[in-house]
Amino acid sequence: MRSSKCILLLLFCSVISIILYSQHFFTAELSTIERNIEIVQNHHILQSRKVVDTQTKINKVPLLLWKFTLADTHEKKMYITNQLLEQIQQIEDDQLLAFDGDEDEIVLSNYVQKNWLGYKQLVLKTMDATSNNDISSAQEAMTLSLIYLERVNTGMKMIVDFHQNDVSQKTANIAVTAQSSQQNILGFSIVAIISFLFIVFFTFRKIILTENQLRKQVSELAEKNALLAEKNLRIKQLAYEDNLTGLANRYAFQSVLTKELAAVSSNATNGAVIFFDIDGFKQVNDVYGHAIGDELLAVIGARIKPLLDDKISFGARFGGDEFALFFKEVTAKDISPILDKLLEVVFIPTEIQDITFHPTASIGVAFYPQQGTTAAELLKKADKAMYQAKAKKNAYVLYNEEARIINPG
């Protein structure tokens, strides 16, 4: 009897020890899982922010380069040159292109840095050729530089995708670890049930409570992963879309235009680049504020969209109040209806916060292949024609070598 009591006491103590150990083990596992998930998510968020910051700074370089090619005085060229070199130096000094982590991430980082070096060299070559009035070499270098810039942005996107996949994979591994821990606890519970039914009841109750806590943690993790996926999608959109108007941005337009020109070249067809801005827009900002100005630009962007057909045309907001459009299979003989319609939709009276505006546009047009075969050349000539149109306002100019003005009268 005494022996049975001793055995029962020993068994009771063993069960208590198992229960206490299982409680400690499971709590420690939960803490480890939470820490691992937090580490993975924080690293992914930091790298994603770094990609966004890097792309923002890198994508300022082509804008400055484009302004450099348009500069018509030595002073302007020197001023923009200093801005360009400072922007490039800042990117390299801050080591924005260096990503550390797994071996695959290092490979992607090396790919980005290699193409950034190629892009930087072509930017400098473009500046040098432009300064020496070697327009052909400058255009060739600028066109090639867009390829390297696209590779840099593609590498950045691949780094974001890599981190997203890495988070999913590590989360899955953590879930497997949690499942394994749960199975261990179940084994301890079975031992407790066999050893002492009374103790098993409390152990089982404890496991149920802990299991519910784990489900809650997994549910919260799923919500966080969904938010991360949404943020990653927004990061990708920012690289190609103007968030004010919903149109493409400058980089996306230049990239698509370069590809489209290559396509129409192989098919021996025509095309037209249309460049325009809003007359007196600076006065709108100065008098009514930038918020009103932004609303007006958003309205103009919404009016432009119905004029575009994805099969034959596309458009973008270049920045400020400047917009660019491209129409395929269009010549100087049949461009007038398009331009008249564009002037018409811009001129529609617009009421914003009880203020009525009557916006007008000055439009410049350059034709492919008559006035250029590259995106840079066509945009430059369309921009020049637009500035001639601004002399009359609410008019358009078709670029030619004599800079003859043609307007709707």
TrEMBL record:
Keyword flag Transport: no
Domain GGDEF: 269-401
Annotated organism of origin: Sporomusa malonica
Annotated InterPro entries: DGC-Regulatory_Protein, GGDEF_dom, Nucleotide_cyclase, Rev_trsase/Diguanyl_cyclase
The protein, known as: Diguanylate cyclase (GGDEF) domain-containing protein
Transmembrane parts of this sequence: 185-204
A matching Pfam family: GGDEF
Keywords: Membrane, Transmembrane, Transmembrane helix
UniProt cross-references to CDD domains, sorted A to Z: GGDEF
